[in-house]
Structure formats: structure tokens, C-alpha cells
Amino acid sequence: MVNAATRGWCDSNGVLSKITVEKHILPYLNQKLGVEKTYAQYKSHIKWFKKQYKYSKLMRHNSRFGWDHVMKKFTASDEPWGDYFMSHPEDKSYRTDTFPDYEDLRIAVGSGMAIGTHSIALGDDTDARTFHTEERRVSDGLIDDFMYDPNTEAFIVNDK
């Protein structure tokens, strides 16, 4: 799913369509794993993945939280954590736990995240007077468009 998302196979909402799943993902998985998974089973697994991704609400709903890609932890000062725990007391472990799969889950099931020219994400430089962000390059969807950067532990656009 991460590979499909980085190839640009998602629709404008960030979701892999049924046709894409049936044409590209399921045949590969079935061959690789020696099984016969169906689209219904795929959808069931997506629901499970989304439950695992529930901690993403920190990033979606509060700009005072950050992500430490080295430690695999959410970051914030005491005040944002206190405010968040008042409305989400069941999530107190988020402050100390590590989330090694967060980046992959964000790519695979982080649907609804804006990726277009006018989207702004954590780490983007913006001009508050004009609400301008640097234009993002949308890939042609080929795996060759990305390379793994071990310094940031992320896939970045290949300049070739």
C-alpha cells in the first residue's frame, strides 16, 4: 500500500480505488504471499490499519504537535499535551510511546491529507501575510521518482 501510494496511484482524495487495488495490489500480494485475497478482505484490512492509525488525530487537529522521525515519537511542550489529555484522557501513552509504523501508515491509510499545490503541512515555510507555500511537485507516479534518504529516513523526490 505504501508503494502504491508513493507511485501516485491514489485518487484525489488519497484513496486507492477498487480498480487499482484489484488490478495492481491484489495480484501482486496474492502472487507474493501465495494466497487469494479478495477486495472485501482488503477493505477489512484497511479498517484495521485505520484503527492503528488513530493517533494521527494529534497531527490532524493540533498544529502544536510535531513528529520526531528519529525517535518515532510525537513531540510537544507540556501545555499542548495537557490540553489534549483533557479531551482524550485514554491517549496518555501517546506522550511516551514510540510509533515505528506511523510514517508508513500515514502514507498507506492517511487518506484525506491534502497533497496539492495549496496544501500546507508541518515543516512547510509559509508567509502568514499571503498564505503562500512553496509549490509541491506532483510525481508522475513512478518508483524511480523517489529515493530513500537514510538521513531523514524518508522517501524523497529523485532529481534525475
Helical percent range? 25-40%
Shape: globular
Intertermini distance: 25 Å
The total tally of domains equals 1
Structural class: alpha+beta
**What's the helix-strand series?**
HHHHEEHHEEEE
| Main beta sheet | 2 strands, antiparallel
DSSP strand tally = 6
Main sheet: strand order: 1-2
Task: State the helix count.
Answer: 6
- Indicate the proportion of strand residues: 5-15%
Look at the structure and give the mean pLDDT.
74
As a whole number of angstroms, the C-alpha radius of gyration is 18 Å
Low-confidence stretches are: 111-143
Structure description:
With 160 residues, the protein is α+β, with helices and mostly antiparallel strands. The protein has one domain. It contains six helices and six strands; from the N terminus they run H-H-H-H-E-E-H-H-E-E-E-E. It has helices spanning 2-6, 18-33, 39-52, 57-61, 78-87, 102-109, and strands at residues 66-68, 73-75, 126-127, 132-133, 146-149, 154-157. It has a two-stranded antiparallel ribbon. Residues 111-143 have low confidence and may be disordered.
